[in-house]
Predict the structure.
Amino acid sequence: MILMREVHMDLISEEKLENMTSMEKIRLILDKVKKGKIVVLESGLTPDEEVRLIEMTMTEIRVDEFSGIEIETYPSKKGGSFLDKIFGKTLKGRMTVIGPANQIHTIEKDKYQISTKVSLGD
Amino acid sequence: MGFISSFRDNLGAWINKIFKKKRAKIGLYGPPNAGKTTLANRILKDWSGEGTFGTVSAVPHETRRAMRKEGLIINANGSTIELDIVDTPGMATKIDFKEFMAFGLSEAESKKRAKEATEGVIEAIKWLDDLDGILLVMDSSEDPYTQVNVTVIGNMEARKLPLLIVANKMDLPNASPSRIKDAFPQHAVVQISALEGSNIDNLYQAIATHFG
């Protein structure tokens, strides 16, 4: 008998993220990742949300339980339009993949592509 | 009391303006083992002639507490800038104590270091709120597209604070500063070897121009 091992992946839409506060997004991500799920955010996080996620992750690391997250997104787009700068428009997040550090490994990343390898949990 | 304090601040600003001496609080950021403390020690040695920020080691997360040195006066490119330098712990999204055991640390030491390293990352993040600009130190021989680099750059752009990328370790045979320039073309990149001190004058000129 062949045992099928599965990876659970949640793709979260931009619409859902737009209606959540920063803390709600961070809690949602960490709760899913700590359960071994891979989370893909259609519109990503703001830079401030990214550092808050890292900060929160650090407080939740536990020996032999949770060693942190692997998070990958693209670098911000160059500059922004002149009008964006004039009106102080904030940089928009880009598609982001987040998973447990012991399961998701980035193979290669550049400006246009992120290649990741997901290993199945024990 | 408020009046005296306000008067003192205004007088200081006025004196600085007259003598064109500017002051900035600059943080050294980057992933673990990028050479932040090596660079911080070199800046301190070059401009104060004494002391060190901390010890340097091949084991990641050697720096687990932010260290600040005040009042370093840098003269370069005909201008003077007074810097408060903050050497921050390496930023990371994951910390596994087993990583330290691979460097020969005991299990107990490794767990202690891992705990301190998580606190160090939080400390580095907290410092972002209290800086005038940062030097983002990258290892030129490593892939520049790490999430730490992307996140730190994104935060500086969102806060509209100046950022200078330091492509460190150019003394290594596989160093490729051009990869860093290609990854983040919108930011100034200075390639150096903090260990050997090569190209360090270019960095001081860039600091004076960028943060002055």
In short: The first strand of chain A starts at residue 9 and ends at 12.
